[in-house]
Amino acid sequence: MKIMLPANSKMQSKAFTYGVATASFQIEGAADSRLACIWDTFCATPGKVRDGSNGDQACEHVKLWREDIDLIESLGVDAYRLSISWPRVLHKDGSLNTQGVQFYTDLLDELNRRGIKPFVTLYHWDLPQHIEDNGGWLNRETAYLFADYTDKVTQAFGDRVYSYATFNEPFCSSYLGYEIGVHAPGLAKKSYGRQSAHHLLLAHGLAMKVLQKNSPNTENGIVLNFTPCYSATDSAEDVQAASKADQYFNQWYIKPLFDRCYPEIINDFATEDMPVIEEGDFDIIAQPIDFLGINFYTRAVYKADAVTGFSQIDMVDNPKTDIGWEIYPQSFTDLLTSLHALYPLPPMYITENGAAMGDKLIDGKVDDQDRLAYYDAHLNAVNNAIEQGVNIVGYFAWSLMDNFEWAEGYLKRFGIVYVDYDTQKRTLKSSAYAYKNLLANRK
Ligand code: GCO
């Protein structure tokens, strides 16, 4: 099977950026040459990560990065999205760790030498543990520490970077990490979730100001994830439930960036769940951004619930990926057109999209036709949104290679390249060949 887009598609042009994405903690390993982070601690806590694994080795990318760049180049991509490990580039006292910085400057130099644009995410969840020990994202001070880290690291990188994203998925850091505790640091309280979200967004705004000053020629923005919410039935109650879920899980993170407020569901909150918001915060948060990154994997369906307001229902009969996420590409188009209708958006990149599948390495090959079909359907869903006038300028596959999938450990494979964790051998899957073929045939 091939990935097929309509012949006249803008996504068939070389002006459309294609890339692959990874994140520091998920691939780097070499935990002994950086500070401890909240994911080290979380992994060391029994019962938190499904296979009891950690990021100590991961894909050993710190050791194998040159080979990994060969791999990236072999795919024919225009861009590579990576993240910087805060605990690798700063010491505890906030000064630069020159060895850690050197790792990234060498990597960035090599990407540039090969004409691959570096898309750098400054925070993909690996908060230094000593900052968490001081309250982490519940402490307003952390937002200022993030701005300081941004200042130091962007000065060190100079003009090596094509694009900076402040944060990857503040929803995951705040909701999964501080509200329901399934991600690091594993805290679980509604007020924690909302307060940490506010501090993450504040940190984004503060860092945007630093980026505008230190790096005015890069494309600077943020990456948000969305799981579009549908109602189980047409009943007014279910429709309202889906709207509330959407406000709570999706709009919460984007509305402040453009409308300088949280969605109206905040008015339903009990006093003790209200985040502390200082005067002027929304003006900081709503800095202009050059691009918005969108991560999309699946949708969710809701019905009304007398106690919680909304509850998700399992679409039992619909196809799912290996991680149990429904495959529903139409919701990707719906998401993009709805955001376009709601907000005055800058150009958008799809910064992550992909699927975990139950890959089998047989005779040195992984024939992942299921993942390939997912990519075909979802790239076409993006194309449909573009045809409806949404300004999408690039697409990144998640992920370059199989890696540490957070609370699932190494049990779920999202790569278009297979990783044998015993030998660290990388093998291109059928989806990687199809992606490469799509890119090679652009006009
Ligand atoms: C995310 C993260 C990635 C994940 C991927 C699959 O979107 O959650 O950016 O780190 O690995 O999404 O869950």
From TrEMBL:
Q: Where does substrate bind?
A: Q26, H124, N168, Y297, W398, E405, W406
Q: Which InterPro entries match?
A: GH, GH_1_N_CS, Glyco_hydro_1, Glyco_hydro_1_AS, Glyco_hydro_1_beta-glucosidase
Q: Where is the active site?
A: E169 (proton donor), E352 (nucleophile)
List, in alphabetical order, the GO biological process terms annotated in this UniProt record: cellulose catabolic process
Pfam families, from UniProt? Answer: Glyco_hydro_1
Which branch of life, at top level? Bacteria
* Catalytic activity line of the entry: Hydrolysis of terminal, non-reducing beta-D-glucosyl residues with release of beta-D-glucose
User: Could you say which EC number(s) this protein's record lists?
Assistant: 3.2.1.21
According to the UniProt entry, its GO molecular function terms are: beta-glucosidase activity
Q: Which UniProt keywords apply?
A: Carbohydrate metabolism, Cellulose degradation, Glycosidase, Hydrolase, Polysaccharide degradation
Q: Mind telling me which residue stretches traverse the membrane in this protein?
A: none
Q: Tell whether Methyltransferase is among the UniProt keywords.
A: no
Query: Has UniProt tagged this entry with the keyword Ligase?
Result: no
Q: Which family does it belong to?
A: Belongs to the glycosyl hydrolase 1 family.
Q: What is this protein called?
A: Beta-glucosidase
Q: Which organism is it from?
A: Shewanella algicola
